[in-house]
Write a structure and sequence with these properties.
Blueprint: H1 14-18, H2 57-68, E1 74-80, H3 81-93, E2 96-103, E3 106-115, E4 119-124, H4 125-130, E5 137-144, E6 153-160, H5 167-182, H6 184-195, H7 202-213
Antiparallel strand pairs: 1-6, 2-3, 3-4, 4-5, 5-6
Helix pairs in contact: 5-6
């Protein structure tokens, strides 16, 4: 799939598009993606959990990041237990958001949808606007909170399904979305997008995401 890189003026039309999400607060599900989830559905599909039961949170983090390092098409990320639970709880109530990917020639937007209990699916925004039911996934990620309480770690797995998205871009997209849900100030913007789309300031959002895009450098997300 080829991407049309958007200019900053493209964003001004998004509040109109965002208003289409308002109906999801009344009857759910509405305008769900029609594809099945492509990534692992359970932590056991990725990790032999019996082998890490006796390990500390730090050791589990090392195992997770080492396992995913260098693997084609997948990214492993770790955040603490409390943040992981906050992401899942908030995403259940505010399942949609948009995340730009920035390149030298400009940017384009992905739309994300949370599907409980732990999965996020992302598609090209323009595809979603044309037909939500046939929008194809570009990437998915899962937030596994199995060790959130006992070990204070949450394990995140991203599967990049389309080679038009580079792996470093996929990692930044996931980190940005996790931050948007786990940080209270950022989550207020997500909640506005879902509950009061007419009040969503897309230009401010794109500006903040652009600044954040250049700051990510680690697979471990600090509180």
């Amino acid at each position: 799939m080829s991407f049309a890189i958007a200019s900053s003026s493209f964003g001004r039309s998004l509040p109109l598009f965002a208003s289409r999400f308002a109906a999801t607060k009344v009857v759910k599900p509405v305008r769900n993606f029609s594809f099945s989830f492509a990534g692992p559905r359970k932590l056991e599909d990725v990790l032999k959990t019996e082998l890490v039961e006796g390990k500390s949170g730090t050791e589990i983090t090392d195992v997770w990041l080492t396992y995913h390092e260098g693997k084609e098409g997948v990214v492993g990320i770790v955040l603490n237990g409390q943040d992981g639970k906050a992401v899942l709880e908030r995403a259940s109530g505010s399942p949609f958001f948009i995340q730009p990917i920035f390149r030298e020639s400009g940017f384009f937007n992905l739309v994300s949808q949370f599907q409980g209990p732990r999965h996020f699916l992302l598609a090209y925004l323009e595809d979603y606007k044309m037909d939500p039911n046939s929008a194809s996934p570009l990437m998915t990620f899962s937030v596994f909170d199995d060790y959130a309480e006992a070990k204070d770690v949450t394990l995140v797995r991203c599967d990049c399904l389309n080679k038009s998205i580079e792996m470093e871009e996929a990692r930044k997209v996931v980190q940005s979305l996790l931050d948007n849900y786990r940080k209270q100030e950022d989550y207020s913007v997500v909640k506005t997008f879902n509950d009061r789309p007419a009040s969503f300031d897309v230009d401010d959002h794109i500006s903040r995401m652009n600044k954040r895009w250049t700051e990510y450098s680690s697979a471990t997300i600090e509180s």
